């Protein structure tokens, strides 16, 4: 009886030792082992929570202007019986950090912390939408070019070459000038900005997708799908694209930081998110005023620091995913 019990115990140990680890579990294990990647996730979660949930806990909005008269502060939302246009009332602008305004107020008398949270919404939204557009066009055109090859591949790659030659900054300046000339409403400018950035930046994704599909389409599983008569669209969507997804996830996370930086640069040049809508980029734009740059760091430093942290977070996560998806990495 004792020998039988030992044999059963040994069999259970062998089964436990031979426990199958799926590719997804292996990727997750590698990712969780990367401390910088986990740090990036924490940074991004904190930014998302602050940007999308933070405004719910404030008593005033993104466009609220603060005034002061005889030491009494009131806002455009809550006048407290005072008239903002009355004599002696001043806009409470460039205020230093205090208990009421943790990061002070900007040059227009708006709370910096509140605009920082709303600006995070806009900057992160732009990042996601632009990357989504780039991934969509990259998968669509890169997948068609890689699968069909021949003349179709040659045509699409020449289109890619043309888009590579387009200078992005002058085009964005032209688009901005056109919007001003035709008096496009401010609330629509952000959508045009996202579409333009997405439509001008899909070529890199298309090339990567094409290269991956060229190497996959001749493998045995793809020959089998052709042998059973599967429709080409289903072959691409169900069999080729899933095998390219790991690379696309890495591209998306790495590209998100670049998009946020690009939006900040465009806003600094005056062609990004239009005022009074807040974004981290146009909040940093206040450094154009030398007085604010020297004496009021509380106005421009917080959005700049948020851009730095967010881009670092996306880069850390992107590096972690790249290493986790790499089959050559140690288990």
Characteristics:
mainly alpha; 13 helices; 3% strand
In a few lines, what is going on in this structure?
With 331 residues, the protein is mainly α. 68% of the residues lie in helices and 3% in strands.
Care to describe what's here?
The protein has 331 residues and is mostly helical. 68% of the residues lie in helices and 3% in strands. A three-stranded antiparallel beta sheet has the order 2-1-3, with no helix packed on it. The longest helix has 37 residues, at 112-148. It is elongated, with a radius of gyration of 27 Å. The mean pLDDT is 84.
**What's the multimeric state?**
single chain
Integer-rounded radius of gyration? 27 Å
Q: What fraction of residues sit in β-strands?
A: under 5%
Report the biggest beta sheet as strand number plus sense, adding barrel if it closes. 3 strands, antiparallel
Distinct helical segment count: 13
How many beta-strand elements?
Answer: 3
Counting helices, strands and paired strands, the structural category is mainly alpha
Query: Can you tell me the residue ranges where pLDDT is under 50 for at least 5 consecutive residues?
Result: none
| Bulk shape | elongated
Helix and strand element order:
HHHEEEHHHHHHHHHH
Mean pLDDT value: 84
Helical coverage, percent range: 55-70%
Distance between the termini: 40 Å
């Amino acid at each position: 009886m004792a020998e039988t019990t030992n044999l059963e115990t040994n069999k259970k140990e062998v089964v436990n030792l031979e426990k199958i680890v799926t590719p997804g579990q292996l990727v997750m294990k590698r990712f969780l082992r990367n401390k910088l990647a986990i740090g990036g996730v924490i940074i991004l979660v904190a930014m998302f929570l602050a940007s999308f949930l933070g405004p719910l806990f404030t008593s005033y909005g993104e466009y609220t202007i603060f005034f002061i008269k005889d030491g009494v502060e009131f806002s455009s939302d809550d006048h407290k019986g005072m008239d903002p246009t009355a004599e002696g009332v001043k806009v409470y602008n460039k205020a230093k950090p205090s208990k009421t305004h943790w990061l002070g107020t900007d040059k227009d008398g708006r709370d910096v912390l509140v605009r920082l949270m709303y600006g995070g919404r806009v900057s992160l939204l732009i990042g996601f939408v632009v990357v989504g557009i780039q991934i969509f066009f990259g998968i669509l055109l890169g997948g068609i070019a890689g699968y069909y090859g021949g003349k179709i591949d040659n045509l699409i790659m020449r289109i890619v070459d043309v888009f590579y030659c387009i200078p992005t900054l002058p085009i964005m300046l032209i688009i901005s000038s056109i919007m001003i000339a035709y008096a496009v409403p401010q609330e629509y400018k952000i959508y045009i900005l996202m579409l333009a950035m997405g439509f001008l930046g899909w070529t890199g994704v298309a090339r990567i997708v094409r290269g991956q599909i060229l190497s996959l389409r001749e493998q045995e599983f793809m020959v089998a799908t052709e042998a059973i008569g599967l429709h080409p669209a289903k072959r691409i969507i169900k069999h080729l694209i899933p095998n390219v997804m790991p690379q696309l996830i890495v591209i998306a996370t790495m590209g998100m930081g670049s998009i946020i930086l690009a939006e900040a640069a465009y806003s600094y040049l005056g062609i990004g998110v239009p005022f009074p809508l807040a974004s981290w980029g146009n909040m940093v734009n206040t450094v154009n005023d030398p007085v604010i740059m020297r004496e009021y760091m509380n106005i421009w430093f917080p959005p700049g620091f948020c851009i730095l942290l967010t881009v670092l977070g996306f880069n850390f996560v992107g590096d972690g995913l790249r290493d986790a998806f790499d089959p050559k990495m140690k288990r």
